C-alpha cells in the first residue's frame, strides 16, 4: 500500500511507513552483523552515511554530532527496554571511537544500501540519514530527509520514552496519566533485568524490564507471597504489583515505588562497608521478622529440590560455567585454573584453608548431613541491596530469586531459609564492601600487590579486607541462627549458614564486569574458602 509522505516538524524530517523490502533489508543486515532485533519488542535503528563524509559532501554532514548524542542516549533507551542499533556504509574501524555502541553499528554494503534510502556520489554509495522504528505502537515509522540530526535524535528519544511510559501506565491500570516529568529515577540492574526506572503515572511506579520468562515467574511468585502475607494481616514482602506489560520475549513488571535507600547504606559503621554498626541489628529486625512470618506460614515437611544444588553441586557447576572460565582467563592470563583451584590459600590472618578442589571434595562427603528435611517459601536473594523501606518505615524486599543458573525446578520459590540468611551474611561480610570498592574505583587497593601464579600455595595474605569476626558480626550471626532454630542441631545450622554464604560468594566469580579487577576476584575467592573452612570446623 502506498503511504503519502508527510513532513513532521517535531521529528525534523519527513515521515512515512517503512516498506516490506526496507524492513527485510534492515533485519537481514543486523542478523548478519550478529545483533538481531528482538521480535515483538521496540527497536530503533539510526542510519548515517559515515564519519568524515560530510566534509566532502555537505548534504551528508552531521554524523559525528548525531552519533555522539546517540552514544550517550542509548543507555537511556536501553533501560526502557528499547533496543538501539545503528547502520552505516562506513568500515567498522571508522566508528571505533564510539566505544560499546560501535559494536551495534551494522555495516550496509552497496547492495544492502540499494534497498533502503541512500545516495550515489562519485566515490560510491552511502546511506542517507534516516531512522526506523520497529515494534510497538509506531512499528514501521521511517523518518528521512532529516534536517537537524542532533535535534532529530533527541526528538526520537523523547517520543519513544513518552510512548513507553504511556504503555506502561495503561498496563498498570492508571490509564495514560503519565506526567511530563518522564523518567524520574534509574536504578542499577540486577542479573536478570535490562532496566529499572521510576516514573509518575497518577501514582509513583517502578518498571523492571527483563526477559518475559523471568518477569512472569517473578511476578507470579511476588503475587503469591504478597497475597498470602496480606491475608494474615501482614504487610506485603515485596512492592505491590500494579501490572505487567508484555511484548514478544520481553516483559516489564510495574510495581509500587518505595524509598530508594537500600540497607547497605544504613547498617555499616564505615564508608567502606566492611564493619557492621552497633545499630545494624535494630535496623534489620523488622525485615528479619517479616521473613520469619513468611517462613513459618509456608513451612512444610519436604526437602526443597534445590537444596543439594545450593549446598554441594553448585560449587562444581560454577567453576565449569563459561562466565567463570572467561572471567578467570581475562583476569589471570597465563595462570592454570586447575592449579589455582588446587592450591591452599594463605589469608591475612595467617590461616591456611585448603583449596577449592579439596573443599568441594569435603562437601561431597559432608553435604548429606547439611541438607534440610523441610522448607518454605523464601526470597532467594536476601542481599542488603535488595532490602528497603516504604515511606512509613515498614520493611520491603525487591528482586526475589527463584531459579539459580537457569536450572528450573518443580517447586519454584520453595527453599531453605538458611540460604536466605546465608545470602544476607555474605552481603554483610564481604560483598557490600567489595562492591563499594568497585563503585569507588578503589578495588585494586584490596590487594596492593598481586601474587605470583600459585604452585601449591596461593598467597593472599596481602588482602586488606577483614577476615575476622568482630562483636557486631558475631551478634549478627547469632541472630540469624536464632531465626532458623531450634529444631536443627546448632553446629549443623551454623555450617549450613557458612556453606550458603560461600555458595552466594562463588556465584559472583562468573561476573567480570561486576568484579572489575583481579583483586576483587581474588578477594571473593578467598572469602569462599574462608566460609567453607569455618563450616568444616563446625562439623569436625
UniProtKB/TrEMBL annotation:
InterPro entries: Aminoglycoside_PTrfase (IPR002575), Kinase-like_dom_sf (IPR011009). It comes from the Bacteria. Residues 365-430 form the Aminoglycoside phosphotransferase domain. This is Aminoglycoside phosphotransferase domain-containing protein. It comes from Streptomyces fuscichromogenes.
Amino acid at each position: 500500500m502506498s503511504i503519502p509522505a508527510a513532513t513532521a516538524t517535531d521529528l525534523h524530517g519527513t515521515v512515512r511507513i517503512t516498506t516490506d523490502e526496507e524492513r527485510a533489508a534492515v533485519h537481514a543486515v543486523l542478523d548478519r552483523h550478529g545483533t538481531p532485533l528482538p521480535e515483538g519488542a521496540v527497536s530503533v535503528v539510526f542510519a548515517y552515511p559515515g564519519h568524515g563524509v560530510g566534509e566532502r559532501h555537505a548534504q551528508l554532514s552531521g554524523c559525528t554530532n548525531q552519533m555522539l548524542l546517540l552514544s550517550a542516549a542509548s543507555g537511556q533507551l536501553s533501560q526502557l527496554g528499547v533496543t538501539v542499533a545503528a547502520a552505516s556504509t562506513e568500515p567498522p574501524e571508522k566508528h571505533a571511537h564510539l566505544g560499546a555502541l560501535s559494536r551495534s553499528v551494522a555495516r550496509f554494503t552497496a547492495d544492502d544500501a540499494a534497498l533502503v534510502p541512500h545516495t550515489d556520489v562519485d566515490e560510491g554509495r552511502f546511506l542517507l540519514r534516516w531512522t526506523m522504528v520497529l515494534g510497538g505502537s509506531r512499528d514501521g515509522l521511517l523518518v528521512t530527509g532529516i534536517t537537524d540530526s542532533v535535534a532529530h535524535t533527541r526528538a526520537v528519544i523523547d517520543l519513544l520514552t513518552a510512548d513507553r511510559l504511556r504503555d506502561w501506565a495503561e498496563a498498570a491500570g492508571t490509564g495514560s496519566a503519565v506526567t511530563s516529568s518522564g523518567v524520574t529515577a534509574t536504578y542499577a540492574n540486577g542479573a536478570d533485568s535490562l532496566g529499572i526506572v521510576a516514573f509518575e503515572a497518577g501514582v509513583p511506579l517502578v518498571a523492571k524490564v527483563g526477559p518475559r520468562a523471568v518477569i512472569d515467574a517473578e511476578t507470579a511468585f511476588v503475587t503469591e507471597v504478597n497475597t498470602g502475607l496480606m491475608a494474615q494481616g501482614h504487610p506485603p514482602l515485596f512492592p505491590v504489583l500494579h501490572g505487567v506489560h508484555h511484548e514478544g520475549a520481553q516483559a516489564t513488571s510495574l510495581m509500587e515505588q518505595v524509598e530508594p535507600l537500600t540497607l547497605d547504606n544504613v547498617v555499616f559503621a564505615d564508608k567502606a562497608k566492611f564493619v557492621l554498626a552497633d545499630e545494624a541489628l535494630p535496623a534489620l529486625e523488622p525485615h528479619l521478622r517479616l521473613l520469619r512470618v513468611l517462613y513459618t506460614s509456608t513451612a512444610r515437611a519436604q526437602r526443597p529440590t534445590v537444596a543439594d544444588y545450593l549446598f554441594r553441586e553448585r560449587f562444581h557447576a560454577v567453576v565449569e560455567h563459561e562466565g567463570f572460565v572467561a572471567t578467570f582467563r581475562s583476569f589471570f592470563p597465563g595462570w592454570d585454573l586447575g592449579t589455582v583451584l588446587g592450591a591452599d590459600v594463605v589469608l591475612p590472618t595467617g590461616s591456611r584453608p585448603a583449596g577449592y578442589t579439596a573443599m568441594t571434595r569435603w562437601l561431597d562427603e559432608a553435604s548429606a548431613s547439611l541438607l534440610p528435611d523441610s522448607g518454605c517459601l523464601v526470597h532467594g536473594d536476601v542481599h542488603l541491596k535488595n532490602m528497603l523501606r516504604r515511606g512509613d518505615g515498614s520493611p520491603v524486599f525487591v528482586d526475589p530469586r527463584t531459579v539459580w543458573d537457569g536450572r528450573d525446578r518443580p517447586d519454584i520459590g520453595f527453599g531453605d531459609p538458611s540460604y536466605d540468611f546465608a545470602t544476607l551474611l555474605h552481603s554483610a561480610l564481604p560483598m557490600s564492601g567489595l562492591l563499594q570498592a568497585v563503585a569507588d574505583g578503589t578495588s585494586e587497593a584490596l590487594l596492593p600487590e598481586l601474587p605470583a601464579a600459585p604452585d601449591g600455595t596461593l598467597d593472599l595474605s596481602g588482602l586488606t579486607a577483614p577476615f575476622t569476626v568482630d562483636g557486631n558480626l558475631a551478634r549478627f550471626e547469632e541472630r540469624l541462627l536464632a531465626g532458623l532454630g531450634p529444631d536443627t542441631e546448632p553446629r549443623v545450622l551454623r555450617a549450613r549458614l557458612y556453606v550458603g554464604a560461600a555458595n552466594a560468594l562463588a556465584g559472583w566469580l562468573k561476573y567480570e564486569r561486576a568484579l572489575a579487577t583481579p583483586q576483587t576476584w581474588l578477594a571473593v575467592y578467598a572469602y569462599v574458602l574462608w566460609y567453607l573452612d569455618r563450616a568444616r570446623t563446625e562439623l569436625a
